[in-house]
Amino acid sequence: MPVAAGAPAPALRLPHHLQAQLAQGVGRRCQAYRTRFAPSPTGPLHRGNLRTALLSWLEARLRGGEWLLRIDDLDTPRNRLGAEAAILDDLRWLGLDWDGPVVRQSAHRGVYATVLSALRRAGHLYPCRCSRRLLADVSAPHGALAVYPGYCRDRAPLWGPQDGRLPSWRLRLQPGVLGWQERGCPCGRQDGPTAVGDVVLRRADGVVAYHLATAVDELLMGISEVVRGDDLWPSTGAQVAVMAALGFPAPAYAHVPLWRDPRGERLSKREGAEGLAGLRSLGLDAPAVIGCLAASLELVPAGSRLSARELVASLSLQALDTCMHPKRAEGEKV
């Protein structure tokens, strides 16, 4: 599977213990199917989150594999007190049991810092001082940020503060196509320069960016397939590029359809989409909620009541695979 074309990247030297940890994680992919659910503790899980959790849990159980739980809690200002505990309670109430201890990204800050230092020494990163206002001027229509145009790519690498402000750190992406194994199509593909660009791996405020933390953790945890919402498909190329820079292959991906309201709008925390609290206030118990989630995927008839274990016992991998095929817009295909 191709990951990146173009000139070879400079040699990367990770500490031996971290190199061994990453290699051991990747090796676990061959031992058993491993997937994960990775919510952020920014509020309660809405129905779309719960449905994705159920899909990935079903996949792991039908394959006799492992379902891991990771809390993506690096963006501290957005985290809400009590949100993590509520997430764990919701999953337990639904009968979605996870394997092993809960993994928290905040516990891996030292690992991310080591990876960033190695990437920087090898010339994979460069400092960027572009302001949000400048980048807003190159944004795509409707507020979607365009691919970074590389304003700072060839400037002298000044890593220290200027005018009291530190730079963000961007990945120097090699030219070519980024590819990965994608459920439901021969290959996921994004052109590096035109669809991904030089993404930020460390923000100017020092916070490790989503692409770096996610890529490192997929490797460390030995994830063989990432099951997540279709809205995250555009993020895949950047994470594949980070893994390639570290010298490791990416896992497979299954980007599942989002749950949308009657107007066709996706459910989101920001819009206050109803989570378990709202459903439970209507008198729904766990079997009724599992039935509702499964019926939305046409896995069971509407009005079904069954536990998560009863649902997995009634399904085949083929039936599950049918409802998990991604449906992407033409604009997302390269």
Automatic annotation (TrEMBL):
Superkingdom field: Bacteria
Broad enzyme group: ligase
Role played: Catalyzes the tRNA-independent activation of glutamate in presence of ATP and the subsequent transfer of glutamate onto a tRNA(Asp). Glutamate is transferred on the 2-amino-5-(4,5-dihydroxy-2-cyclopenten-1-yl) moiety of the queuosine in the wobble position of the QUC anticodon.
Protein family (similarity comment): Belongs to the class-I aminoacyl-tRNA synthetase family. GluQ subfamily.
EC number(s) per entry: 6.1.1.-
InterPro entries, sorted: Glu-Q_tRNA(Asp)_Synthase (IPR022380), Glu/Gln-tRNA-synth (IPR000924), Glu/Gln-tRNA-synth_Ib_cat-dom (IPR020058), GluQ/Sye (IPR049940), Rossmann-like_a/b/a_fold (IPR014729)
Record's keyword terms, sorted: Aminoacyl-tRNA synthetase, ATP-binding, Ligase, Metal-binding, Nucleotide-binding, Protein biosynthesis, Zinc
Molecular function, one GO term: ligase activity
Family matches, as Gene3D superfamilies: HUPs
Residues involved in L-glutamate binding: 36-40, 72, 210, 228
Positions of short motif 'HIGH' region: 39-49
Protein name: Glutamyl-Q tRNA(Asp) synthetase
Binding site for ATP: 269
Co-factor remark: Binds 1 zinc ion per subunit.
Extent of motif 'KMSKS' region: 266-270
Occurrences of domain Glutamyl/glutaminyl-tRNA synthetase class Ib catalytic (ranges): 34-132, 194-273
Residues the record lists as binding Zn(2+): 128, 130, 148, 152
Cofactor(s) the protein needs: Zn(2+)
Pfam families per UniProt: tRNA-synt_1c
